[in-house]
Amino acid sequence: MKPPSPSGLGRGVELSTPDRRFEDIMKSGITYILECANGNFYIGSTDDFNRRFNEHENGKNRSTKHKRPLKVVYTKKFVTLKEARSFEYFIKRQRNKKFYEKLINGAFV
Length: 109
Fold this sequence. Notes:
109 residues; alpha+beta; GIY-YIG endonuclease; 3 strands; 35% helix
């Protein structure tokens, strides 16, 4: 049997650790584009760009492992990781190399 909840909030309500999803939403994020050795682009987002880029460079990412060396061609910082992920998916939905090149060259403000 559970002990009574604090403040009379009712049975089954626990006030232990903060919600992990809330912490993830509040992290700042970066969307990035890498140019691979074969000329293709890799699009991603993260809350720690240096760690993530090192993972790509050290072959820990299946998508870029055999496409090294990699070159960072675009980064954009966001207030939340959720916004960065949304922008990543927006870019990926374009599926157009010319669009990626325009974005990289600053055609869109």
